[in-house]
Amino acid sequence: MIMKRIIVPIDFSSYSNFAFLSALKIAQKTGSSITCLNVVNTLLDWNNLTELVKSKNQEVFDLEAEAKDKLKSFIMSQRMHGVAVESVVEIGVPQNVILEVAKKYKADLIVIGAYGSGYQEGKFIGSTLQHVIRNADCPVMAVKKTLDGNDLRKMVFASKFNEVSRPAFTKMKAILKDFQTSVHFLFVNTPSHFVNSEIAESKMDAYAKGFEDMVIHKHVYCHTEPENGIVKFAKSRNIGLIGIASENRKGMESYKVGVTDTILYKSDIAVFSVKIE
After folding, report:
1. Are 149 and 26 in contact (CB under 8 A)?
2. pLDDT digits (tens, 9 = 90+) for 106-115
3. Residue 251's pLDDT is what?
4. Which residues, 6 or more positions from 177, have their beta carbon under 8 angstroms from its beta carbon?
5. Which residue, 51, 77, 80, 213, shows the most beta carbons closer than 10 Å to its own?
């Protein structure tokens, strides 16, 4: 798979700026284009309203015009480094519109800030991001700061290494290969779900087959809980990216979406998430 298009939701917060600058770094390396998306937030089913009903909501038109000007100015203020960047303004519920635009434009990646413009210190990650991670068909990279080249050169991939997550990891390769990222497979052993180290290592060995074109290191790490174990391991190795194959179906042995959310909340390390189909 070749990276072609990156979607970046822009709400003019500092976090969306971090997302844009991170996407720019990725686009430079992968030859991708960037679509900056701003959503005029309304519960109205705007696209299905008649023109008569729309005309009675002039404030939405005003907000749309303001957003177009603001987004255009935002893009013009950036140094593009040869990357093609376009602006798109849509009307609706942000979490839904982001997914619709990503599907419409056949996005290969969504890069999104961990928080939005209404963020207050100490709060959990935004509901928009949680919804996007759970439902996006393409990979999602959530950031709390601007990524640089070093952050993308090493990644922790935390998993139980069952075959169900293999397609998700394969999708990650589209970005990782361009950065020649070395991947650290991480099996976190916890007291409540302890697995013999030899079994864990054999799972990782089997999982790595077919990915011989990547540099893969394998680790079994003991901690009282998966989330803190993943974060602690990444920090101990100075790794700036954590990969998670996220799924929301019950009864499967793999890290749940909640782990992805919690890792983002507990650290400033970027999370690269792909939904398991």
Report:
1. no
2. 999 999 998 7
3. 40
4. 213, 214
5. 80
Alpha carbon distance 54, 179 (integer Å)? 47
Q: Tell me the angle at which helices 94-104 and 127-135 cross, rounded to the nearest 10 degrees.
A: 30
Q: Do 20 and 131 sit in the same domain of this protein?
A: yes
Q: Which residues pair with 217 in a beta bridge?
A: 184
Pick the last residue of a domain from 102, 118, 143.
143
Range of the domain at 246: 149-275
Average pLDDT over residues 31-44: 93
Tokens coding 38: 């701003």
Residue type, 123: K
User: Nearest-CA neighbor of 15 among 117, 94, 87?
Assistant: 117
Model-level pTM greater than 0.85? Answer: yes
Q: For residue 118, give the amino acid letter.
A: G
- Contact predicate 103/137, CB 8 Å: yes
38 and 163 share one domain: no
What's the rounded Cα separation, in Å, for the pair 103 and 34?
14
